[in-house]
Amino acid sequence: MASKTAKVDFSAEAILRKIQERKELLNHINTLKGQLVLEQVTDSLRSLKKHVNFDVVGLLAFMFGFDAIMWIMLAIRHVPKTFARYKNSRCNIIFTIIDHLCPCRFSVTLVDDIVCFLEEFAPESPFLGNYSAVFEEALCTLSKREKLNFGGFIVPPVEDCLRCGSILSAPNPRSSCTLYTITGPKQCAKLVLRCKDCKVSYGRSMIAEGKGNASYYFEAIAAADDLIEVTNVVYMEKRLYRWLPSLTDGFSVSYNELFSREIRENFESDVTGDQNDDKHQNFVPSFSD
């Protein structure tokens, strides 16, 4: 017996009717949004708190916008409650942050009401707690359990071929690499993309054209990258790399102090030479030279 397929009406009247239905639905949503009052929602949730499992963060995002609620939640986590003990300055600090990120959208009173609402009804929300540690712990657990490094995902800085504009593909499987960050090393997964037409491979920092020919990306692309490729399996955050010159200078000072006697004995002629010769007067062996 042949299966029956539902008939679809493609007439102009049916299409217009469907559009009108969707408009009415959106208008109904906007009307409902305009009728929501935070104080009334708070009273309702307090009376039903033990009986209803409700997405309060989603409701606030619906009322005030996802971006605004996200900023408020991050500000709550950033400014400790203890700051409220000094002239209620916590409220003003949070408002100052939100007013900068979402200018002229909220009053001090409304921000304070939203903060109290979130802390009362969504205390376990990831963005209100130590979500970074929980997230990192989850990545470590998954890396051990799955056949994939979840610590980070390193890909080329472009999605399309810089020569012909074609969409790049990933013909080769993922490989493992190590990323050194300012919070410690991470085991990561890496992809190399390739243009089928130009036969050019795109890595994180370099473009390989075959026959041993390789080049770096354009300066604008390289400058926007937040990683440095040390080798094809080792990467480093630029934030961490900035420490290396400073640490090298500090090591030079410590090295010269530790071996000051040897420096005096072995380089005495250079240090105590012609006092009018700046080259000899200032000579001290240093790793930073």
Automatic annotation (TrEMBL):
<feature type="domain" description="CxC5 like cysteine cluster associated with KDZ">
    <location>
        <begin position="154"/>
        <end position="245"/>
    </location>
</feature>
<dbReference type="InterPro" id="IPR041539">
    <property type="entry name" value="CxC5"/>
</dbReference>
<dbReference type="Pfam" id="PF18718">
    <property type="entry name" value="CxC5"/>
</dbReference>
<protein>
    <recommendedName>
        <fullName>CxC5 like cysteine cluster associated with KDZ domain-containing protein</fullName>
    </recommendedName>
</protein>
